[in-house]
UniProtKB/TrEMBL annotation:
It comes from the Bacteria. Its EC number is 1.14.15.33. The lineage of its organism: Bacteria, Bacillati, Actinomycetota, Actinomycetes, Mycobacteriales. It comes from Nocardia macrotermitis. Coiled coil: none annotated. One of its GO terms (molecular function) is oxidoreductase activity, acting on paired donors, with incorporation or reduction of molecular oxygen. The keyword Cell division does not apply. The keyword Iron applies. This is Cytochrome P450 monooxygenase PikC. It is an enzyme of class 1 (oxidoreductase). Keywords: Heme, Iron, Metal-binding, Monooxygenase, Oxidoreductase.
Length: 402
């Protein structure tokens, strides 16, 4: 059993090596020290991680911590969100919230994604170096989420600006900025809620306002907390997965992907596969055992902080042919998984359709990464519309096809 920092330090392109080493070292269950100096356990391997994510004796609620963990000290209305709840309270809130992401709403969601992608890609330069991170990957989830929540178009810029501090993993020292961000978002969401009560639509807030489970309904605080959860849970993962899909398509699958542009279902299947191969989340959010639990012969005490290494589970040969864990598993499976896939899919298709020839700027290992140990996420993504010598043969082949 290792005692050390494990891969909780600065972002690194060697993240697979680090998580594989944790999985294969000893019993695969480790003690570690988080960047803030607190103690944690790390569980690795497909079977152990799956158990941790699905075991009802393991809670996601920080109230079940016995070591003093209190999270980001959000206002109570925001703190009581699905990421910080478990048991009956979680089941009730998730049941009322889930309908807004159900199949009945997929066509509406996809139209918003398609419209947003089209607008962003239209604004990208026609040639030269194309900054896909700042021009597409980063603004996409903010604009989609704001529109889905029902904010008017003229407020989407303020919504994106206010959301930015919540998405920086190194923003713990920016308490004033975080408070201003939350107050601005709170005001925007509260105003939108008031508007949707008067004039409901197909947006998430309207669906949540109308949600009923018998006589039960969502409170005002719960509506606001769900909106914040959609922001926090949907932005970073979507930015990461969209960037990796674009980079990998241009880098390794461009010819094959272009052949499927007129076959949307096949293109979407390729996009989903690439998201699962990239597996941008290194860890699931922390868990707290409700009683002492034993994993691979190691006893983890009640209430201690435990992280499940999703990356090690993804790399584990035992995962072959079994359901992936990219969006989690069990009762905390990501409600917005389909929405994240749609954004990566539409962004990739639109970029390939606009630019007949694309090249990556260099090896992926030379890209800067976001400062986050929770995710493996690119901080930059630039492509070129020029044709290099190595690409000319492939392009001539594409151009000469019947």
């Amino acid at each position: 059993m290792t005692v050390g920092s494990c891969p909780f330090g600065a972002s690194t392109h060697d993240v697979d090596v680090l998580h594989e080493r944790m999985r294969t070292e000893g019993c695969g269950v480790h003690r570690a020290v988080l960047p803030d100096g607190s103690q944690a356990w790390v569980v690795t391997g497909y079977d152990a991680v799956t158990r941790l994510l699905t075991d009802t004796a393991v809670s996601a609620a920080k109230a079940d911590s016995t070591t003093g963990f209190r999270g980001n000290r959000l206002p109570p209305a925001l703190d009581a969100n699905l990421l910080n709840l478990d048991g009956p309270a979680h089941r009730r809130l998730r049941t009322l919230a889930a309908e807004a992401f159900g199949p009945r709403h997929h066509r509406f969601h996809e139209q918003i994604v398609a419209d947003t992608v089209r607008e962003l890609v239209a604004d990208l330069p026609s040639d030269g170096p194309i900054d896909l991170m700042n021009g597409l990957c980063e603004p996409l989830p903010a604009r989609v989420t704001g529109t889905l929540l029902g904010l008017p178009p003229e407020q989407l810029g303020a919504f994106r600006d206010a959301s930015a501090p919540l998405l920086r993993s190194d923003a713990s020292h920016e308490q004033d900025a975080l408070r201003r961000s939350m107050m601005t978002l709170w005001g925007l969401i509260s105003a939108a809620l008031a508007d949707k009560r008067r004039t409901p639509g197909q947006d998430l807030l309207s669906v949540w306002i109308a949600a009923r489970d018998g006589q039960d309904r969502l409170t005002e605080d719960e509506l606001v907390s769900l909106a914040f959860l959609t922001i926090i849970g949907g932005f970073e993962n979507t930015i990461s997965s969209t960037a990796f899909v674009l980079d990998e398509l241009v880098r390794s699958h461009q010819g094959h992907a272009r052949e499927m542009l007129d076959r949307p279902s096949e293109f979407a299947a390729l996009t989903r596969r690439l998201i699962r191969e990239a597996a941008p989340m290194n860890y699931a959010l922390r868990r707290f055992p409700l009683t002492d639990i034993e994993i691979n012969g190691v006893v983890i005490p009640r209430g201690h902080t435990v992280f499940a290494s999703l990356r090690s589970a993804h790399l584990d040969p035992a995962a072959h042919g079994r359901p992936d864990l990219v969006f989690g598993r069990g009762r905390h499976y990501c409600l917005g998984a389909k929405l994240a896939e749609l954004q990566a899919d539409h962004a990739a298709r639109a970029v390939l359709e606009k630019y007949p020839h694309l090249r990556v700027a260099g090896p992926r290992e030379e890209y800067r990464l976001r400062e986050s140990w929770m995710t493996y996420s690119l901080a930059e993504l630039t492509v070129s519309t020029g044709v290099g010598d190595a690409d000319r043969g492939a392009v001539r082949w594409l151009d000469s096809r019947p």
